[in-house]
Amino acid sequence: MKLDRYVVLTVLLGGTLFYPASCKKEPQGYNAQAQFNKDTKLIQNYLSQNHLTAQQDPATEIYYHIDSPGSGISPAIGDTVSVIYTALLLNGTVVASADTAETGPLIASTTPYLYNSWSICLPFIKSGGGITIYAQSFFSLQDEGTLAVPANSVILFHVNLVAVKKAIE
Asked: Which residues is 153 bridged to in the sheet?
């Protein structure tokens, strides 16, 4: 996967805990491709050890499992989505969640610090559906950290797509 040329997609939601401690360029010594490969192996081991199945998106190599396909409409870039979610580290530590629907636009972004994995994977389901996303650190905080999320962390998202409002109706 050519990470330096990939334009990632993201969902922006207010009140999230995933802003980096600082915004900086890739530091010397940090190798995005090597970290991506390490994260992918961690995800594969996690799936195997927990007897879980997941699909891998061929374009991005991100892993996901459709828990429920939903029956409404699928979101696209520019649409507004409402979601209920839980974000966890692979050790089970909850790092963010929303028990009531949070709403925000589904947008394209080259910013690595937002929920990039969501805009890649949410279009795989329809409103009323749910998806589990196993996001390599490239699709979240990369080598940055927050108080809740260590740098280079794989994040597991359980996302329920409550509603989709099309940008152009």
From this structure: none
Model pLDDT for residues 53-95, shown as the tens digit of each residue: 999 999 999 999 999 999 989 998 788 888 899 999 999 999 9
Domain count, the chain: 1
What six digits make up the tokens of 140? 């979240």
Give me the long-range contacts of 98-101 (CB less than 8 A, separation at least 24): 98/13, 98/15, 101/162, 101/163
131 CB contacts (<8 Å, ≥6 apart)? Answer: 64, 65, 66, 67, 121, 122, 124, 125, 157, 159, 161
Residue 82: inside a domain: yes
> For the sheet containing 94-108, what is the strand order?
9-11, 94-108, 80-89, 155-165, 130-135, 63-68, 55-56
Which CATH number characterizes residue 80's domain?
3.10.50.40
**Residue 25, SS3 per DSSP:** coil
Question: Taking the CA of residue 89 as centre, how many other CA atoms within 13 Å lie in the half-sphere pointing to its CB?
Answer: 13
Q: Which of 35, 8, 22, 10 is nearest to 114 (CA)?
A: 10
Q: Are 114 and 12 in contact (CB under 8 A)?
A: yes
CA pseudo-torsion sign 62, 102, 130, 50: positive
C-alpha span between 8 and 5 (Å, rounded): 9
- Which residue range(s) make up the domain with 160? 8-14+31-165
